[in-house]
Amino acid sequence: MKIPGYPGKFFEDFTKGERIIHRLGRTVTYQDNLYFTHSFLNVAPLHFDKEYMELTEFKKPLLVMAMTLAVVYGITSETFKNVYKELGIRDLRFTAPVFDGDTLHVETDVLDVKDVEREDVGLVVVKHRVYKNNFSQLVCEFTREALVYKKAYSPRWKIPSQR
After folding, report:
1. Distance between CA 154 and CA 30 in Å, rounded?
2. Residue 1 lies in a domain
3. SS3 119
4. For 62-86, how does the pLDDT look when each residue is reduced to its tens digit (9 = 90+)?
């Protein structure tokens, strides 16, 4: 039972042990990073001051880590369209810097799929691994927990189809 014209996985579609390779990649730019950094009033020069960063081992501004997470949520949104509620992330680890021009990709392992004390949603626990530049280097990994709609309870069923 799939909602016509609506991709994404429902709770029943996730399988413990499943690996999902998200095909969408996202190239990040210096402009993206400037906007994101300044939007959050981040004043750490390592994200926007090129002259300062030339004096460091990195030689250029680093992508702000919150933007890396935002990009991951964007890349994985096609699969996770039916999330009712994000419960949180844990075990967050950054392993390599991300710079202007890097392209991020995400691989997801489904760690657990559990019924909860609600009939409309279930718990899905995944581990996202974020790579840059054709999966050549791991830059970040974390565990994500979310309540995901069961098919029969999706609000999408209540939206009339266009004729």
Report:
1. 38
2. no
3. coil
4. 998 889 999 999 999 999 999 999 9
